Amino acid sequence: MKKLKLVMIGNGMAGVRTLEELLKLSNELYDITVFGAEPHTNYNRILLSPVLAGEQTFDEIVLNDLDWYLDNSIKLLLNRKVVEIDRVKRRVIADDGTEAEYDRLLIATGSTPFILPIPGNALQGVIGYRDIADTQAMINTAKTHKHAVVIGGGLLGLEAANGLMLRGMHVTVVHIGEWLLERQLDKTSGQLLQTALEARGLHFRLSEQTQALHDAGNGRVGSVEFKNGDIIPADLVVMAAGIRPSTELAEKSGIPCHRGILVNDTLQTYDPRIYAIGECASHRGTAYGLVAPLFEQAKVCANHLAQLGFATYKGSVTSTKLKVTGIDLFSAGDFMGGEGTETITLSDPIGGVYKKLVIKDDVLVGACLYGDTADGGWYFRQIRENHDIDEIRDHLMFGDASFMEQAIGDAGHSGREAS
């Protein structure tokens, strides 16, 4: 039987995981061609921050080396950015003129950093934080320059700031929000994190808007100006103020997009021969940026590409377990609380521990943990499975271990009664 042609645009974690899942189900169905815009094989973007911090090398974060592609007969075309999808002739065309025909096409173009539309954003020394090239640029700059400004107080911004500080730079984090990591933490835990990071040497400007970046006189950024008129020195400006799904290619080829490439529960676009997965895809109004949902999508997408066709993706309930410069954080569900909810908190500032649980109608609907996240997974299961917590409410704050102790105690007690 003649093999079908599968072309994948993008060589990142979500796309390659889809290929791995597909090869488990069927390695005879397709001739596979992969276009990667970068000059590298697939690597773990989540571990860019340890590379920046000097804790790991790039070679250590590579997920699939060249041999993996060769062993699986995958044609890998690196350093080639696809610029056109011809849906009539079913082919893709790269910026160097390379063409590849497809029977099925998988778009896994990921996302791009949001660069603030302000004066000076094209100066030398102003970069996003997305790939190994950005990471290397930061490492190189830290050797020759002193002042860094990171715009964005989310996870990516804090990791960039920490890595640059460890490499000897004076780092200021600028954040438009009231507290750090406002999507993952509530105000109390966000302030605890800020205090801990300040003690390590980072500087913060919260509730601040960047108005302009100024030239040092040599075409390189030299300072940052805020809306209130303050100006601080900056030899390096890292934009970590969010990402945007990479949809330009799909839009140009007439595939409907809205905050991502629109996909159904089988990860197919409006053109059923074309699939989209990962950060570039919008499923039921959500574009996911976390690894767990992307890997769930990969399984479903592979199931359909393998022509099994019984798996569906209904969306993901997400939790966030982070380690920011050695500080453990966890959040899941509706951890902010609100009308109709009840909140239980435990605060131990001296021990560096804060826990907040949000309950609605005797069901745990949210959790935010700072400093001690050992029970994060257990709380996440309670949230995801809608367990009634009425009978265990008094023990809830003490997590999974308290129920084990209670069960052992109950068993011992009933044993004594029996004797």
TrEMBL record:
Q: Which UniProt keywords apply?
A: FAD, Flavoprotein
Q: Please verify whether the record's keywords include Zinc.
A: no
Q: Which residue ranges does the record assign to the FAD/NAD(P)-binding domain? A: 5-285
Q: Which coenzyme or cofactor does it need?
A: FAD
Q: Give the UniProt family note.
A: Belongs to the FAD-dependent oxidoreductase family.
Q: Which taxonomic lineage does the organism of this UniProt entry have?
A: Bacteria, Pseudomonadati, Pseudomonadota, Gammaproteobacteria, Pseudomonadales
* Flavoprotein keyword on record: yes
Return the SUPFAM superfamilies for the record.
Answer: FAD/NAD(P)-binding domain
Lineage: superkingdom: Bacteria
Give the source species. Answer: Pseudomonas mandelii
Q: Which PANTHER family match?
A: NITRITE REDUCTASE [NAD(P)H] (PTHR43429:SF3), PYRIDINE NUCLEOTIDE-DISULFIDE OXIDOREDUCTASE DOMAIN-CONTAINING (PTHR43429)
Q: What is this protein called?
A: Nitrite reductase (NADH) large subunit
Q: Which residues are in the NADH-rubredoxin oxidoreductase C-terminal domain?
A: 319-385
**What Pfam families does UniProt report for this protein, alphabetically?**
Pyr_redox_2, Rubredoxin_C
InterPro entries referenced in this protein's UniProt entry, alphabetically: FAD-bd_OxRdtase, FAD/NAD-bd_sf, FAD/NAD-binding_dom, FAD/NAD-linked_Rdtase_dimer_sf, Rubredoxin_C
